[in-house]
Design brief:
- The protein starts with 8 loop residues before the first helix and ends with a helix.
- The chain is built from 13 helices and 2 strands; from the N terminus they run αββαααααααααααα.
- It has 2 domains: 48 residues; 238 residues, MetI-like (MetI-like fold), CATH 1.10.3720.10.
- The radius of gyration is 28 Å and the shape is globular.
- The chain has 311 residues and is mainly α.
- Helix 3 runs antiparallel to helix 10, helix 4 packs across helix 7 and helix 8 runs antiparallel to helix 9.
């Protein structure tokens, strides 16, 4: 009978090292294996179409036949088109006219519900959030009934015949009011979540030091909520530049788009799609992306800078 060769210490160490390496490789690859469905879908449904649309923005393409390379002509045609600037002004108006009222109202509601002044908080929370769960088109149709000229609820109560939706000067403000009413519940929840992250001991210490309610809000709560404010303002800006349903459902008729005098910038993209100008539509989308990027960058800079100065 043969005798087994003794395993040297060096061989044992090498074998153990190989096993550990295999285990480490498995541990390292396991997370990527779990998130691989998301990565594949993200590349297939987002990165791929984004690259394709960017390339398409330099071509004239009707959806069939061959595409004609135009270079930057699509972008030049858009920025020299007067409707582009009109709809861009409308979009910026909708954003700036509602954002501060919306954020202040949502934050104050969150502070009020979190305070000891309000009882039965479980009743108020869903009531405030309720408008957000309604479909945008449905709420726009409701506002259409409220602000109708002949039979609208508002004119009936006031005894007037104000052309809320026919006069674009009034209609813009109806859109702003709709944006505030529909969005306040969502940002109320976000601010309420941000307030719960503040350590109660910090507020108690400020109270012990003699700080009033306003002083606690100004010097304790607001600085600690800075990151939440940055998130809220940036996300709301992104959503505002993508506004489409509210003005179109309120004033458009017969399946058409809203008049350019009160239409948002996304209408230009949709009208190009309807006319089979896919290259121009892609260019509008990328211009919109650059606008959102610039606005978000300056918001980060301004709000971060303000916070650092306060510190």
């Amino acid at each position: 009978m043969g005798t087994a060769k003794p395993v040297t210490t060096t061989q044992a160490v090498v074998t153990l090292a190989v096993r550990r390496r295999r285990i480490r490789w498995g541990d390292a690859l396991a997370p990527y294996l779990f998130i691989s469905p998301f990565i594949l879908s993200f590349i297939t449904l987002f990165i791929g179409p984004a690259i394709y649309s960017f390339v398409l923005s330099f071509f004239r393409y009707k959806g069939y036949g061959s595409a004609t390379f135009l270079g930057l002509d699509n972008y030049k045609a858009i920025v020299t088109y007067h409707v582009f600037w009109t709809e861009l002004r409308n979009t910026i108006f909708y954003w700036l006219a509602h954002v501060f009222v919306l954020m202040i109202a949502a934050f104050l509601l969150a502070v009020l519900v979190r305070s000891t002044i309000i009882s039965r908080k479980n009743i108020y929370k869903p009531l405030i959030f309720l408008p957000n769960i309604l479909a945008t088109v449905a709420t726009a149709l409701v506002f259409q009934s409220l602000f109708g000229t002949e039979y609208g609820v508002i004119n009936s109560l006031l005894g007037t015949k104000i052309p809320w939706l026919q006069d674009y000067g009034y209609a813009r403000w109806v859109v702003v009011f709709l944006l505030i009413w529909h969005g306040i519940g969502w940002w109320f929840v976000i601010y309420l979540a941000g307030l719960t992250t503040i350590n109660p001991e910090v507020e108690e210490a400020a109270t012990v030091d003699g700080a009033s309610g306003w002083q606690r809000l100004r010097y304790v709560t607001l600085p600690l909520m800075r990151n939440t404010f940055i998130f809220a303002f940036v996300i709301d800006a992104i959503g505002s530049f993508r506004i489409f349903n509210e003005p179109n459902v309120l004033v458009a008729r017969g399946g058409s788009l809203a008049n350019p005098d009160m239409a948002p910038l996304l209408n230009l993209l949709m009208s190009d799609l309807r006319s089979a100008r896919f290259g121009s539509s892609a260019a509008v989308g990328w211009i919109l992306f650059l606008l959102v990027l610039v606005v978000s960058y300056f918001q980060f800079r301004i709000m971060r800078g303000t916070g650092e100065e306060a510190e």
